[in-house]
Amino acid sequence: MNIADDVAWTSNELRVVAMDLSSPGATPYVLEDSAALIWREIAATGRIRVDELTRRLSEQFDIEAARIQTDVETLLADLVARRLLRS
Length: 87
Known about the structure:
It is a single chain. With about 90 residues, this protein is α+β, with helices and mostly antiparallel strands. It has helices at about 35-45, 50-60, 65-80, and strands at about 1-5, 5-10, 15-20, 30, 85. Helix content is about 45%, strand content about 20%. Strand 3 and strand 4 (about 30) form a beta hairpin. Helix 2 (about 50-60) packs across helix 3 (about 65-80). About 15% of the residues are buried.
């Protein structure tokens, strides 16, 4: 999983705003809280497998990977559908 080539993004402590520049009429997409943290983790690594991302998040928040796996996968699928990430 990595950020798509034609995506511009910016962030502050609270949120990430990303936009697919290859789609005419695209609107910025705002990620907050855990979604912003997931985006930053992907950005920091350049490319990461979903299982590795889930493992890192589970360690960071001291929560079982199985408890967050579905939520992480759902978010990533949404970001891929919006052409913000590539799998």
